[in-house]
Inverse folding.
């Protein structure tokens, strides 16, 4: 799987390098500041691709004493680095576009620039879609992030083509820096989004969509002996996940019986939710008489209160560090 991920990002790196050269060729032919903006952003594709190659290599290394959760978090650093580079490129493009108003220059062979940029836009779109699809299939946040960045590059190139066509038919060269400024704003926005994604991953921000999937799977395969699940925490390390939670079960069960229940859940999550590895740390809590009201165990030998209602599991009662009877009293 890692070899495939590395192969995909290497293809992206080579294609991005060729397209960057083509865009700079278009700039030297036309002297368009908007085309230069597009070319500067493409440099980031090359730099980010190279860094992504290294991050994929590093994230594939096994766990060791210094990195007990593996090296997967480097992928968050990778997309943060890419986002920062994109943001810097956006700032440079903005400065270059504004300077045009103080020192305008004549454009040349705009039609040639249109053909070159149109070609790079099509190739980038195909490449971006390929990376996003592969990133979801593997899965890999590095490939997905790189793919979304390249798709943004393709879309901005389409906007650039529209601007060049307007210049070609109207002769208003002022459109050139205006288009460059719009592109710079879009690039700055994308850079911010990638940095935000990186920070959230490095700070272990909870992905609620993943939490909802885990809760739904637990609920669909709920054993009557699982009285409640609470204090759930989910952390992502590259393609792998670390899941903590507390599960309340009848106090009279043997260690072997509780272990079998936990093993069943681990197997379900790894087989049905993640193509990577989900590691569990589950703390077992013994039941108390207060939990009898929503305990699903029929003919419980130690029941002290009659069953009243089944409590459905959701974020409100699975995430807090409180048993269901404590959270609802």
């Amino acid at each position: 799987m890692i070899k495939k991920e590395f192969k995909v990002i290497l293809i992206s790196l080579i294609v991005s390098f060729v397209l960057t050269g083509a865009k700079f060729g278009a700039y030297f032919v036309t002297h368009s500041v908007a085309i230069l903006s597009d070319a500067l952003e493409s440099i980031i594709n090359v730099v980010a691709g190279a860094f992504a190659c290294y991050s994929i290599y590093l994230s594939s290394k096994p766990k060791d004493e210094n990195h007990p959760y593996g090296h997967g978090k480097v992928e968050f650093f990778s997309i943060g680095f890419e986002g920062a580079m994109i943001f810097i490129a956006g700032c440079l493009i903005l400065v270059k576009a504004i300077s045009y108003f103080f020192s305008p220059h004549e454009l040349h062979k705009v039609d040639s620039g249109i053909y070159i940029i149109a070609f790079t836009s099509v190739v980038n779109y195909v490449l971006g879609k390929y990376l996003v699809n592969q990133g979801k299939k593997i899965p890999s946040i590095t490939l997905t992030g790189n793919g979304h960045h390249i798709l943004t590059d393709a879309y901005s190139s389409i906007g650039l083509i529209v601007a060049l066509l307007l210049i070609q038919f109207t002769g208003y060269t002022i459109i050139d820096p205006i288009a460059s400024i719009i592109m710079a704003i879009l690039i700055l926005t994308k850079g911010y989004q990638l940095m935000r994604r990186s920070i959230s991953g490095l700070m272990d921000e909870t992905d609620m969509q993943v939490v909802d999937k885990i809760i739904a799977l637990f609920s669909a395969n709920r054993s009557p002996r699982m009285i409640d699940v609470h204090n759930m925490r989910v952390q992502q390390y590259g393609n792998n996940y670390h899941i903590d939670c507390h599960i309340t079960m009848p106090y009279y069960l043997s260690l072997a019986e509780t272990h079998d229940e936990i093993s069943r859940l681990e197997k379900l999550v790894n087989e049905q939710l993640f193509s990577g590895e989900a590691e569990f740390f589950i703390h077992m809590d013994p039941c108390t008489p207060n939990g009898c009201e929503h305990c699903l165990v029929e003919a419980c030998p130690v029941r002290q209160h009659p069953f009243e209602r089944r409590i459905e599991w959701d974020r409100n009662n699975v995430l807090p560090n409180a048993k269901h009877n404590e959270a609802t009293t």
